[in-house]
Design a protein that fits this description.
Length: 181
């Protein structure tokens, strides 16, 4: 099995176009139009290889390739697509695209792993919008509550909770999506 470097390059270049600032680096905050376009692209790419996709109530995306033994825990890989202001084109995105490419190659080679494999795209991991680093993973693992989302406010005075709702999500339902050990 071999990865397709051209496909990886194309993914990263395409995603880097969704940027709110000109000049050096990339700026893409959670719950923005640019974030939405990257999410739509990644979901389409995951659908192309037959992954079961879940978007939780705060926006974490999970794409799952079923393994041979469903009683085994999933193995997750990925990262985030949000950036700090003028961040790098590879930060976070490289982890997401690497995981996607690994599953593409497995699917193309009809490889079925023992464990289910999942791509994870965390929301607000860099924490640039709401000053809440690791926000998506903290909420997904139950380390923080929905009430914490209401207290994380961006420079415009909008809470992460309100931004998620405006983005079309239902953060109140997050308790049903917390990952159990």
């Amino acid at each position: 099995m071999k990865t397709n470097l051209e496909r990886i390059r194309n993914d990263i270049q395409y995603i880097s176009k969704f940027n709110t600032t000109s000049g050096d680096g990339t700026t893409r905050f959670s719950y923005t139009e640019e974030d939405k376009k990257v999410r739509e692209y990644l979901i389409k790419e995951m659908e192309k290889i037959g992954l079961n996709i879940t978007v939780d109530p705060i926006g974490n995306i999970r794409g799952k390739m079923e393994g041979k033994d469903s009683s085994l825990p999933s193995v997750m890989a990925g990262s985030h697509i949000d950036t700090v202001e003028h961040g790098g084109n590879f930060d976070g995105v490289a982890g997401v695209i690497s995981a996607l490419e690994a599953l593409r190659v497995m699917q193309e080679n009809n490889f079925k792993p023992e464990h289910s494999l999942e791509i994870i795209v965390f929301v607000e991991e860099e924490g640039p919008n709401f000053k809440f680093p690791l926000g998506g993973s903290r909420i997904m693992t139950g380390a923080y509550s929905v009430e914490d989302l209401k207290n994380q406010v961006n420079s415009d005075g909008v809470s992460m909770y309100d931004a998620a709702e405006k983005f079309g999500l239902n953060p109140d339902d997050m308790k049903n999506y917390v990952v159990k050990k």
